[in-house]
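Dear support,

I submitted the protein below through the web form. The confirmation email said the job was done, but the results page showed an empty box. After a refresh the structure appeared. I'm attaching both so you can tell me whether what I see now is the final result or a partial one.
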Amino acid sequence: MATQQREQWGTRAGFLLAAIGSAIGLGNIWRFPYVAYDNGGGAFLVPYLVALLTAGIPLLILEYTVGHRFRGSPPAAYRKIARPAEAIGWWQVLICFVIASYYAVIIAWALRFVGFSIGLQWGDDPGGFLMSDFLHVADAPGPISTYVTGVAVPLIVIWVITLGVLALGVKKGIEWANKIFIPLLVVLFGILVLRALFLDGAATGLDALFSPDWSAITSGSVWVAAYGQIFFSLSVGFGIMVTYASYLRRRADLTGSALVAGFANSSFEILAGIGVFATLGFMAVSANIPVDEVVESGIGLAFVAFPQIISEMPLGAVFGVLFFGSLVVAGLSSLISIVQVVIAAVMDRTGLSRVPTVLGVGGAVAIASIVLFPSDQGLYILDVADHFINQYGIALAALILVIVVAWGVRGLRGMQDHANATSAVPLGLWWRVTLGIITPVVLGWMMIDSLITEFSENYGEYETWFVASLGWGVAIGAIVIGVVFSLLPWKRGGAQEESDVVEEGTR
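What the results page shows now:
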């Protein structure tokens, strides 16, 4: 394997924008507002901020430090911590492969809905339009029988943009793209929020979101929800931040960067909550019904509830373009970061240059996406794969990584020393306690709680064969393939030779 000079970010601001762009995705807009509303409203901000400070930012710092110290993608970096830990890295690469394949199609939907907003083409029944006219969803899970060109075409456009940016490299591609995407997202979403605040009923919606139910913070489920939201919204557990940090210069403020990225992500989530609930308040007042009857999350909020609201509000077409345009931009910045994990791992492993790797490996992700998801079964496959790869992929991989670093090789002290050598904000005992005790306990409890629910009933009331094959099958398959990849020998002569594994990782 030929040794290549590792790419670098052009500026710290470029790295921060890319890290923030990765963290700010579709879930910030359509998941956080509902989770906050459903778990105590304004009172939810207390466990949310505690979770950010005791799990989110400490995990970000750990991933930044691992990537920066060992200068590699997850498999290469974890291999230097402990030889068996390489399997965790490949596991995360497979997780990113799966997530990228379906995440892209949601962005493609949003791209089409930018156009549908002009003329309000969903008519009087946005739900029927989405499921039947646009997605052509089958009545039940089964073999693929219909291919939907109306989804395939924008999906191809999304993949062309994504692979084009990645082919240009870290500095000229990813950094340059995020210098456009993030300011554009702030402008689009800022205008949208300002418009929402002046709608009739906006105050009603905001009151529903922020009125605190202080009794909720005594509930364990609320705290689990807070840690879950922080964990899934910060792009930790994917290997993304390990990869991005590996392109930093030798002198880099790791803790300061993590604090900026963490608080920027949370600020955007709160802004999203304001925009979404001000809009839902308008819908509730217009229909003369309580806010809780119009609250939704996920795809239902974005592609059913919001189109209905857009149809009823003044200048709705403009609002629709802003909203769905924001989804496209937020989604693209996250998708690029997810696919980059796969690209970086293969480049480190094989020594191939960037363009052939992007075309070959990135092209493989794109083909899987284009073949599976623009079909009458696409929504079912997306729903099950997303649930299981998130619950038993991202969270579980992060839990095992933290246990390996904190307790397996007792490497937190070495990581702390490395981060402190170049960072403005020093780490202390609090960081080792949060990662060594609090984070494993919370993630472990999330796993147990989720598994209890999983085994009590099939997810989404799907048939067992469907859950087993495309749910458990995908989640377990990522682990098995990751272990197999880790057993393949690295070619000698490259930067990842086995000679620097254990001592460097535990020093």
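Response: this is the final, complete result; the empty box was a page-load delay. The radius of gyration is 22 Å.
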